[in-house]
Amino acid sequence: MGSNGELKYEISQNAYIKLVLHSLRHKTAAVNGVLVGRISPKDDGVVEISDSVPLFHSNLALLPPLEISLIMIEEHYVAQGLSIVGYFHANERFDDVELCGVAKNIGDHISRYFPQAPILLLNNKKLEALSKGKERSPVMQLCVKDASKNWRVVGADGGSKLLLKEPSANVVLSDYISSEKWKDVTDVDDHLDDVTKDWLNPGLFN
Amino acid sequence: MVTKTEEIQLNQLENQVENGGGGVWEYLCLVRKLKVRRSEIVLKHGLSILNDSGKRSALGPDEWTLYEQVAIAAMDCQSLGVAQVLKKKFPESKRVGKLEALLLEAKGMWEEAEKAYTSLLEDNPLDQVIHKRKVAMAKAQGKSSLAIEHLNKYLEVFMADHDAWRELAEIYVSLQMYKQAAFCYEELILTQPTLPLYHLAYADVLYTIGGLENLIAARKYYAATIDLTGGKSTRALLGICLCGSAIAQISKGRNKEDKDMAAPELQSLAATALEREYKQKAPAKLNLLTSALRNLKIA
C-alpha cells in the first residue's frame, strides 16, 4: 500500500455541497466540519467520503463543544459502518490559504483514529469562479500528513487526488447557491443553542 | 449584544420585510438601534426606499441617516458602486470623512485608509468607532498581533466596553492563546456577573486549558451558568458531564480526597436534565445522547 500521498479521496455530492453551503451561510466567520465515510471496500487506495457534518461557526478552538460533537457523530455513524475520516475548515478571510493551528490540531486528533484522514480547506477563489461556470474541480484544497507528520497541501492541482464522486456536483452546487439554499443548513453550534435543530440536516437535499 | 426578545422582534420584522409585508423603515431603525449586522437585507430594502423619490422625501431629515446606513451596508456587501454614488450626495462633514475612510477600507486600500483614520483620530482622539476600525483593518489583513495590540490599547482607555473585551477574547481563542482569553472573560465576569454568557465562555476556556484545578473551576462556572439560566443551558449541562468525566480520569489512582472531586451526583443531575430536554425537544437524538453520556462515564 502506498504512502498517504498516493491515496485518493472521493467525496460524495451531498457531503461536498453541505460543507460549502455551511461556509456560505456564515460568510464572515471561520467554519469547520467533519468528513464521514470509510475506506472503499473495492479499493483500499481510495477513501470514500460519503457524508459530512458541519460543526461550528464561532469559537472553533474551544474543546468542550468539539469533544461532545465528535462523540455524538461517531456514535451515530458507527451503526452504518462509517466513521469520522477527516476534517473540513474554511478560513475567515477570503485570501487566507494557511492551515491554522486549530485545523492542524483537530486534524491530528482525527488522524489518531483514522490515519489516512485528510484536511479539506475551502478555496475561496475557486468558489468565486464557480459562479462564472469556470470550475470543474472541487472548490477545496486537499491537505495530508506527510512522513514527518506535518500537514501539507497536496499539489497545486490536488484535483487528481481529491475527486468529486458525481461529476455534476459543481453544477448542482451553483444551483443551490443561486437559490440561497445555504439558509437551510444547520450545524452543531445551532443544535447546542437549540436542540430541535438537527445537525444531520435531513431533508436538506429533498 | 441583543436580548432574546429583541432578536425575536428583529426576526419577525425581517420576515415581514422580506415577504413584502412592509415595515421597512421600522426594520431599518431597529437594525440601527441594535447595531446588528444584516447588511444584505438593509442594502436591498434601504435602496428601494432611497430610489423612490416619494418615499425618500417622506423621510425628511432622516433621509441622511438612511443614506449613511445603506452606504455602510453597501460597503459590507462589497457593492462599492452603490456606496460611491451615495457618497457623492453627502455634504461636507466629519461623519462623511469617516464614511470616506470606510470606503477606502472596503476597497482594500489599506494604507490610504490608515492615513485617513489617523488624521480623523488627530481631531477626535476619543472616537471609539475609528479606533475599532483600526482593529478591524488589522484583522482583515490577517495581522492578528497588530489587532491585539490596538485592541489592548483601546481597552486601556475604554475599559468598560464589553463588546471590545469579547472581541479580544475571541481573537485570543482563535489563536489558541487561552490564558489571555481567560483573562478577558474574568474582566467581563467581574463587571457583569449576572450574564451567563461570560460564565459559560470562561468555563469552556478553562476546560480547554485543562489540568485538574482548571477542570474543577470550569465545573463551578458551568454550574453558575446553569444557575443563571434556570437550567436551560444545554452547553453548560454538557460541560458538567465533560468535566466530571475528565476529572474522574485525572483522579484515577489518586487519594480519596481527589476522588471526591468527581462529584457524581452533580453529573447525574446534569445527565437527567439533558435526557429530559432531549426527550421533550429532540427525541430522535435521545439515543445518541444517552450513549454519549454513557461513553463519558466510562471514559
Give a structural overview.
The complex is a heterodimer of chains A (206) and B (299). By secondary structure, chain A is α/β, with parallel strands linked by helices. Chain A has a single domain, classed as Cytidine Deaminase, domain 2. In chain A, strands 7-6-5-4-2-3-1-8 form an eight-stranded mixed beta sheet. In chain A, strand 4, helix 3 and strand 5 form a beta-alpha-beta unit. In chain A, helix 1 packs parallel to helix 5. The longest helix of chain A has 16 residues. Chain A is globular, with a radius of gyration of 16 Å. The N terminus of chain A is likely disordered. With 299 residues, chain B is mainly alpha-helical. Among the domains of chain B are: 89 residues; 91 residues, no CATH class. The interface between A and B is medium-sized, with 28 and 32 residues.
Query: Spans of chain A of 5+ residues with little confidence (pLDDT < 50)?
Result: 1-5
How would you state the average pLDDT of chain A, rounded?
Answer: 91
- CATH top-level class of chain A: Alpha Beta
- Poorly predicted regions of chain B are none
Structural class of chain A: alpha/beta
SSE order of chain A in H/E notation? EHEEHEHEHEEEHH
Please provide the count of β strands of chain B. 0
Give the percentage of residues in beta strands of chain B.
under 5%
The proportion of residues forming helix of chain A, as a percent range, comes to 25-40%
Order of strands, main sheet of chain A, comes to 7-6-5-4-2-3-1-8
Question: Biggest sheet of chain B, open or closed, and with what strands and sense?
Answer: none
Largest sheet of chain A: 8 strands, mixed
Could you name the CATH topology of chain A? Cytidine Deaminase, domain 2
Instruction: Give the class of chain B from helix and strand content and strand pairing.
Output: mainly alpha
- Rounded to the nearest angstrom, the radius of gyration of chain B is 24 Å
Shape of chain A: globular
